[in-house]
TrEMBL record:
Family matches, as PANTHER family: OS04G0258900 PROTEIN, OS07G0554500 PROTEIN-RELATED
Protein name: F-box domain-containing protein
SUPFAM superfamilies to which the protein is assigned, alphabetical: F-box domain
Record organism: Oryza punctata (Red rice)
InterPro entries found in the cross-reference section: F-box-like_dom_sf
Lineage: Eukaryota, Viridiplantae, Streptophyta, Embryophyta, Tracheophyta
Length: 411
């Protein structure tokens, strides 16, 4: 009889791990104490999270004069709305637990429940900053060591990648999180941070791992393709990710900068054959998705057309050397032509599309808003995801994760 309670918990765990989604698990664990005890154990949560994709929970807007701005949760009737509300109440997206002053910290990236923020150093450098990796649910953070002087010496007059007014939000570096595999016994992935700067004639990149606790240099691509308009500098577009690779459009070109984190190698890919004849004014006109069978799906938004329509083209490839295969072409609603402002993210077969406020409301500040819609790539159905009551949202992060009850400390 001594082993009966453990056996009961094991049976419950086998039942609960088969619950279809994190939202269903949250409802099930509210039913009784036994379910909640089993479903909130770290061992169960690691197993459950490995089998289920994170939920689309909202949009983070880092713009503004204060830290990290605001989190806008998914709205009903989206199925993630209850979990999004719970997250908004439980997490500290003001990051008030970071070392003061709070207004100095700027949100740069998020991944696997971790958030990357940095702040300008006393000397005013827009490239080298204090870097913190945070967990806003458990209110924890770690400060990364500074980049060593011998590595920093290779960075010469980097071009601005964010801002441009020399203020607290100007940055001359691209810094982001990357997963580098799982630890033993199903623990959280190790912490990895990539730091990049575009200098004249070269790309400089460094890699930090929580395992080594050191920064090391990454080899740039052999022929790094600078923008043809050098006087404007080299700016990287929206960062996309699929199957362990990060992608940036090199602004004013039809080229991709790619970082393969499985090999920690850079390469430049010419994608002009696909984009030829299409005006690519914004980097969020192209986004990458993952397919279950290993293909990388690329969605290209053709916006600046003579017929004022917005058309989405879906391509796929397996390797960089492949020729992209056209899967489908989709016409978005005609009235979206002048409101479409790009694709901010993708999750489980859905695109998340940003629309500006309708033209007829431009004179009414109460009605001005930015709306984010979901677009089901299989059924072609549209749905409202969330809304931001502001006429000026220049940057936004699509946020996916798990409800607070299914979260584990990530830092």
């Amino acid at each position: 009889m001594a082993g009966l309670p453990a056996l009961t918990d094991d049976v419950l765990a086998e039942i609960l791990v088969r619950v279809p989604s994190p939202c269903d698990l949250a409802r099930a664990t509210a039913a009784c104490g036994s379910f909640r005890r089993v479903a909130t154990s770290p061992r169960f949560l690691r197993r459950f999270r490995s089998l289920h994709a994170p939920l689309p929970l909202g949009v983070l807007c880092p713009d503004g004069s204060a830290t990290a701005a605001s989190f806008h949760p998914a709205m009903p009737p989206h199925p993630s709305a209850p979990a999004a509300r719970a997250l908004a109440l439980a997490a500290d997206f003001a990051f008030s637990f970071l070392p003061p002053p709070a207004r100095a910290w700027l949100l740069r990236d998020h991944r696997d429940g971790r958030f990357l923020l940095d702040r300008a150093l006393a000397g005013g450098s827009t490239a080298f900053t204090d870097v913190a990796v945070c967990d806003p649910i458990f209110r924890r953070y770690v400060l990364l060591p500074p980049i060593p002087d011998d590595l920093a010496a290779s960075v010469e007059n980097p071009y601005l990648q964010r801002g441009g007014d020399g203020g607290l939000q100007s940055r001359s570096s691209e810094i982001f999180l990357a997963s580098c595999g799982s630890d033993a016994e199903g623990e959280e992935p190790s912490l990895a941070v990539i730091w990049m700067a575009c200098c004249r004639g070269k790309l400089v990149a460094f890699f930090f791992s929580s395992e080594s606790q050191q920064w090391r240099a990454l080899s740039p691509p052999e022929h790094y393709a600078l923008s043809t308009r050098r006087v404007m500098g080299v700016r990287l577009g929206q960062r996309n990710h699929a199957h362990g690779c990060f992608y940036w459009m090199i602004t004013l070109t039809h080229r991709w900068l790619v970082l393969d984190t499985r090999r920690m190698e850079f390469l430049v890919v010419d994608i002009s054959p696909v984009l030829s004849g299409r005006a690519m004014m914004f980097s969020n006109q192209i986004i990458t998705l993952e397919s279950m069978d290993g293909w990388t799906i690329v969605v290209v938004a053709d916006v600046f057309r003579s017929d004022k329509r917005c058309v989405l083209y879906f391509y796929k490839f397996m390797y960089f050397s492949d020729r992209w295969q056209l899967q489908s072409k989709i016409n978005l609603p005609e009235e979206w032509g002048y409101r479409f402002r790009g694709i901010i993210g993708a999750s489980e077969g859905y695109l998340f599309i940003k629309l500006d406020h309708p033209k007829q409301n431009l004179g009414d500040p109460v009605q001005q808003n930015v709306t984010y819609f979901t677009f089901d790539t299989k059924t072609m159905q549209l749905g409202r995801f969330c809304e931001i009551c502001s006429g000026t949202v220049s940057e936004a992060y699509f946020y996916t994760g798990f409800p607070p009850s299914q979260s584990l400390p990530s830092v």
